Amino acid sequence: HFTSRLIDELGLQTVCHHARCPNRMECYARKTATFLILGDTCTRGCAFCSIRHGKPAPPEPDEPRRVAEAAARLELRHVVITCVTRDDLPDGGAEHFCRTVTAVREATEATIEVLPSDFGGNQAAVDQLLDARPDVYNHNTETVPRLYRSVRGPKADYRWTLRMFRHIAEQERGVRTKTGMMLGLGETDAEVVDTLAELRDAGVEMLTLGQYLQPAPGKIPVARYVEPAQFDYLAVLARAMGYKQV
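^ that's the sequence the OP posted. Answer follows.
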């Protein structure tokens, strides 16, 4: 209740709430949440996601300060900041993201993980966010290339994801790279392994794999339940590929 009340008091959004995560009460009880910035309305309508889409409101200038205040009052040691996709903004919201990172860094001693959109393939926006010196640059691949358009929509491009991670690795800025994938969307085990290998080759260091759950009626149904043993097997494979954390 402390976490929930604080989020309401400061007028903040969390992906925990908007993505209908079934674990959010457990996380809130531990005084942790993933901050969702740039509003609560996404310009894309991904088939797996329950965050509403449409025409967003302009970014709130005071939001970075409020996120920083929440991080300080929650006494967070690691802060994760994600966002809705803002194709309506020339920089995809990169400047607002940077202001939020700076505000959190000034208010806390926490490490900072950013989880931005693909910025529509805008490499300059990626560089702008890198200039804010996050500790971890996370971008979710979500699924295998064959399912990219059906899961993430026509505006997403798997090649952007690979190009972005290669570009970050080439910068040698010391930021750790991370990605996540959902399993159970209709992918094959072979496709998962191939995708993990490509992402590792592109320089990704940290990996999360999770079971896809249908968040709302009308969203992509679950194609399969992935047994825990299969996750264990993929974790062994991923570490053998060179991922530092899985």
